[in-house]
Amino acid sequence: MQSIRETLNRLIPLRIRQGYPERGRRARHKFIQPLTVRPEPVEGLNQHFPSYSGFLCTATKLCVVMLAVSMSSCIPRQEASIRIGVIHSLTGTMAMSEAPLVDAARLAVEEINAAGGLLGRPLEMLVVDSRSDPRVAANEAERLIVEQGVSALFACWTSACRKVVKPVVEKHGHLMFYPVQYEGLEQSPNIVYTGSAPNQQIVPGAYWAMKHLGKRVYLIGSDYIFPRLANRIIADMVKASGAELLAERYRPLGSADFGEIAREIERLRPDVVMNTINGESNQHLFGALRAAGLADQPVVSFSVAEGELRAMPEARLNAHYAVWSYFQSVEGENNRRFVAAYQKRFGADRPTSDPIEAAYVGVKLWAQAVREAGNESPELVNHVVLRQSMEAPSGILAVDPGNRHLWKGVKIGKANAGGGFDIVYASKWPLRPTPFPLYRTRRDWLRLVNDQERTP
């Protein structure tokens, strides 16, 4: 109790002697003497304190409160988290391909948090299911930016999805990372494209196929913008190389009906089928080919990775190739660590793939830019990210500041019985991304894109 009295003596600039306040000039220049508690009432104070013991009790409570406030200010406060939004299909026809990308982003976030977070704050990941519907993805992008205050978006697989999310991101001056190879012919000031550009997948894949498998070509794709424009590039190459385009066919995204396609391929006997089918429809395409006795038909796929391959063991073909910048079978310590971490976290039977690596790399590149900028603001990070590079599982990757795509190599793999790919070709060096192939002007390409988007 003595310590509290001493505290009161220091805090109250009023001298009290024998229970009565000293009046006059001297009282303003002296501190109180040690308190002597007396029961007599004091004129002017008893209306507030029934007795000196009451006064002391109240003053003691005041000191305790002040002490508690002082101590609470010394306790470290939990910093508010930095939020990112992840938009991928967890249901619907694209779930087979997209759900693993959520896990890739989650692995990157967990590694960042295990290393202390960003700017001394934890990183929080908000995941939404776009349900294989581009309109849902666009609505969720708006909500995450406006209502949830995310600092970046990591979103979409199909170009149809990206095309409707893009104006939302641009309207808010925000930042999005797109993790899948695509047809190119686009360059948004608010998107970083971590998947392959056409010259890093479609062009070298088609060239290799015609050189090594033959020049009688059959094209099959899902009926939306990526396959249509990718096949336009391949058709240009077929014509330029003196090869023969036997047919170009499309099925709705999510279609399971490929019987007629298989019968036509059986009849035409192409040297190679170039496949831009997306999602679970691949399982039905390959199943139809096997049912037609075409298990040995050479097929080169541009949207089938390890995950899709393992999900359809009964529909595997004997001469199936895929074109990507990354395969799980890539040699190197960085990739071994990446595969081990991914499978330890999500299961030993879960393969990695090119889109998985691209989704993981997107989060890591963004985090590097946040650290360099010292701020998570999308406007600021959007500039700093253009000078980022990293040693990724697939090799050294770098953002090209001129077109916001990544420098990366190209690899071609042949499907094996274990549900993976054996690499049969790999570029020696990373390729500079060229989203607009140089044999047409940018204006001509954009005109073709606009025409395609207006086509019902």
Keywords:
7-stranded mixed beta sheet, globular, Rossmann fold, single chain, 5-stranded parallel beta sheet, alpha/beta, 14 helices, 3 domains, disordered N terminus, 456 residues, 17 strands
Give structural notes.
With 456 residues, the protein is an alpha/beta fold. It folds into 3 domains: 2-72, no CATH class; 82-197 and 332-405, Rossmann fold (3-Layer(aba) Sandwich); 200-329 and 438-454, Response regulator (Rossmann fold, 3-Layer(aba) Sandwich). Helices cover 40% and strands 17% of the residues. The protein has helices at 2-11, 52-72, 95-114, 134-146, 159-171, 202-212, 225-240, 259-268, 281-291, 306-310, 333-346, 354-373, 378-384, 442-454, and strands at residues 16-17, 20-21, 82-88, 123-129, 153-155, 176-178, 191-193, 216-222, 244-251, 272-276, 299-301, 320-324, 389-392, 395-399, 406-407, 411-415, 421-426. It has a 7-stranded mixed beta sheet, with helices on both faces. The chain has a 5-stranded parallel beta sheet with strand order 4-3-5-6-7, with helices on both faces. A 3-stranded antiparallel beta sheet has the order 13-14-15, with helices on one face. Helix 3 (95-114) runs parallel beside helix 12 (354-373) and helix 12 (354-373) crosses helix 13 (378-384). The chain is globular.
